Amino acid sequence: MKKPGILVRMAATLVQVGLVLGAYLLWARPYQMRWGATDEEVRRPMPGDELDSHPDFLATRAITINGTPAAIWPWLLQMGYGRAGFYGYDILENLGSPRGLHSADRVLPEFQHFRVGDKLPLSALGGLVFHDIEPGRYLVWSGVDGVGAFVWALYPVDANHTRLVSRIRWSHHWTQPLPLALDLFTEFTDHLAVRKVLQGVKDRVEGRVEPLARANTEFAVYVVAALTFGAAVVLTLLRPFTRRRWLASLGAGATWLLTWYAPVPVGLGVLLTILALAGVCLAFRNRPDPALSP
């Protein structure tokens, strides 16, 4: 029997990618755009909303912290590359930082006196600026051109608890290839960073710091899951088609969605990623494989 040709492989790849992206658009994206936030917090006007009234990307996330706004504020103000870090995936976010790989685990007095217009470095390549600062209440980062808003706001719940709410709004650079590529990268990865910042601030205010090994393991799961799915898509397109290979590749896509967007514990994420990688390796290993075999 003649093996399926390139048109069959292209169709199989398109269906596979379409199913995964469909699940992203219908489930993962709406979930990650409002992680931890209530309906009221999503609807509530926030400082910086005026910077982009019709954004392509609008995300509101939140977390409850056992602490007062006064206790939380210094941790927010000192964030930045080459400063206190971002309390998240240090192996990536602080790479090359003159202050070392680890984000700060204490309040740093030298980074508590910023003013509107000061720069906020996100990496060695560039960053944002402080657009608005209301001590103890909110700070707004924006692009150097004043477009787009990255907001961190504090809303007291009671005498001992505060809601830390993050809102991000910007529009894609549809006519500029390089900025658009960065926009699309942020589209899929932004929630990983913001969620970790929220959790990192909460941990520090409440007197604990996540071990670096755990954060690195979590980050490795994200990288390996994404690379496994990407490799599976390419292999589906290039290698002879079989249902086993197509299902293994689809399983890698499901693993990417689960590890990135569902609240999967680190241990379970490691297990799922290993299974997905093993499934793809076994399905696509070099051996005689009859066309259309199950």
Describe the structure.
With 294 residues, this protein is of the alpha+beta class. The chain folds into 2 domains: 6-28 and 218-284, no CATH class; 34-210, Alpha-D-Glucose-1,6-Bisphosphate, Chain A, domain 4 (2-Layer Sandwich), CATH 3.30.530. Helix content is 48%, strand content 15%. The protein has a 6-stranded antiparallel sheet with strand order 1-6-5-4-3-2, with helices on one face. β5 and β6 form a beta hairpin. α1 (6-33) runs parallel beside α7 (243-261), α3 packs antiparallel against α5 and α6 packs parallel to α8 (266-284). The radius of gyration is 22 Å and the shape is globular. 32% of the residues are buried.
List the main descriptive attributes of the protein structure presented here:
2 domains; 294 residues; Alpha-D-Glucose-1,6-Bisphosphate, Chain A, domain 4; 6-stranded antiparallel sheet; alpha+beta; 8 helices
What is the molecular shape? globular
Number of beta-strand segments: 6
The CATH architecture of the largest domain is 2-Layer Sandwich
- The CATH superfamily label of the largest domain reads START domain
Distance between the termini: 15 Å
How many DSSP H or I helices? 8
Oligomer status? single chain
Average pLDDT works out at: 91
- Strand coverage percent: 15-25%
**SSE arrangement, N to C:** HHEHHEEEEEHHHH
User: What is the CA-based Rg, rounded?
Assistant: 22 Å
Q: Strands of the largest sheet, in order across it?
A: 1-6-5-4-3-2
Summarize the main sheet. 6 strands, antiparallel
The name of the CATH topology of the largest domain is Alpha-D-Glucose-1,6-Bisphosphate, Chain A, domain 4
**What is the level 1 CATH name of the largest domain?**
Alpha Beta
The helix/strand class is alpha+beta
The share of residues in helices is 40-55%
Low-confidence blocks of residues: none
Number of domains: 2
